[in-house]
Amino acid sequence: MFSTKNELQVLTLLLRSCPKLQRLHIKFNQDVGRSLDMLSMEGDWQYKELSTVDMLKHLRTIEINNLQGTESELDLVRYMLENANILEALLITCVKNNEETHARIIRKLLTFARASPNAKIFLS
């Protein structure tokens, strides 16, 4: 999910059409036969392409399932953390990765700025 501009546009449309959205659940598809490198190279979007105008101002909880750790997935997480002003919890479930990939995801998440001082990240 979110590997192409079309999917990004759908997300943007969804967020704009639900301005009072408080809980968002995203489930990424698992592409078992593809490597993380291929996923991160194909049609990545830049999180800066999303408009931040009040789209996430009511969002309190985000749940993301099947995170593989691709750059485009992590860019989406960064965007959410940087723009959800009252976010309370970000719950992330990763696909079964090796320890090195899991550690890389954790290191990356710790570098992301948070608009909400109360935002807590739960990673499993």
From TrEMBL:
Q: Which residues form the signal peptide?
A: none
Q: Where is the FBD domain?
A: 53-124
Tell me which InterPro entries the record gives.
FBD, FBL13/AtMIF1-like
Descriptive protein name: FBD domain-containing protein
Question: What taxonomic ancestry is recorded?
Answer: Eukaryota, Viridiplantae, Streptophyta, Embryophyta, Tracheophyta
